[in-house]
Write a structure and sequence with these properties.
three-stranded antiparallel sheet, five-stranded parallel sheet, 2 domains, 165 residues
Amino acid sequence: MEEQRPQAAVGIEWEKRIRAGDDFCAACFVIWRGGDAIVMMETPASVLCIDDEEPALLLRRLVLERAGYRVFWALSGREGIERFRYQPTDVAIVDYWMAGMNGLEVAKEIKAMSSKTPIIMLSGFTTILDEGLGKVDLWLRKGDSNPEQLLMAVVHLLDKRRAKG
């Protein structure tokens, strides 16, 4: 019987995969893009979202949790840095404009603790500011990106991190 795939251009689902030849069964997170499947991992990655605007933060959290990620969040840059310090994080998503401490200051602190942790910066600016070079791995324009773009950005950065070892 042919495997059923979601009708949408990008569909997200959890599946059980059974490896041939053994009794091991693991839950894998799969993103379908057209006819191609991208198998992410057996254990969901952890994502830290830092934003001082609670509605935007809750929306990102909902999107990422529905995609199978473990999501941690903080409502300020300082709180985000403290969470990062004590919570293993695979990817950080940081808002640029925050009261008290902007996103680049947060990114600098995170990179000082763990240079290998990818950081996605969300901003109204279209490109990485010069001061963001070396601190931010990916710059996404707020309002222009849809949830699938954010998810694909997370997948891309996790794959890139795994490839580097």
